[in-house]
């Protein structure tokens, strides 16, 4: 139960951040498909995860992209181009997305 609540809260937080950024853009049109570069800012090397776990974390982010109308319909239109980690980051913990139209 606690994990599901954490995922729900993470998705909600991601949604709010995306809506805030989307609203800064004029005439934004949702992507039918896109690729993303993902960078995890982590406090130290203990938080660096393997690609499979990182991709699982991104499911909530991709769902939030649909909720925030960054992409249309479903998250199948999102291709993860790269996943990186920056340990000892002043921004930690954070996830940065760079979105590219396809």
Instruction: Give helix and strand order, one letter per element, not per position.
Output: HEHEE
Q: Care to count the β-strands?
A: 3
Number of separate helices: 2
- The average pLDDT score comes to 88
Low-confidence stretches: none
State the CATH topology. Answer: 60s Ribosomal Protein L30, Chain: A
Largest sheet: 3 strands, mixed
Helix content percent band: 25-40%
**CATH class category label:** Alpha Beta
Beta content comes to 25-35%
Number of domains: 1
Give the structural class.
alpha+beta
Give the gist of this structure.
The protein is an alpha+beta fold and 102 residues long. It contains two helices and three strands, in the order αβαββ. 37% of the residues lie in helices and 26% in strands.
Descriptive account of the structure:
- This protein has two helices and three strands; from the N terminus they run αβαββ.
- By secondary structure, the chain is of the alpha+beta class.
- It has a single domain (2-101), classed as 60s Ribosomal Protein L30, Chain: A, CATH 3.30.1330.
- Helix 1 packs across helix 2 (51-67).
- The mean pLDDT is 88.
């Amino acid at each position: 139960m606690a994990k599901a609540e954490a995922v729900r809260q993470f998705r909600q937080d991601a949604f709010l951040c995306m809506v805030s950024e989307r609203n800064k853009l004029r005439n934004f049109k949702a992507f039918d498909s896109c690729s993303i570069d993902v960078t995890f800012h982590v406090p130290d090397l203990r938080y660096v995860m393997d690609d499979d776990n990182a991709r699982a974390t991104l499911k909530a982010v991709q769902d939030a992209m649909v909720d925030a109308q960054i992409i249309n319909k479903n998250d199948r239109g999102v291709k993860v181009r790269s996943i990186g980690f920056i340990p000892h980051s002043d921004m930690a913990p954070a996830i940065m997305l760079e979105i590219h139209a396809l």
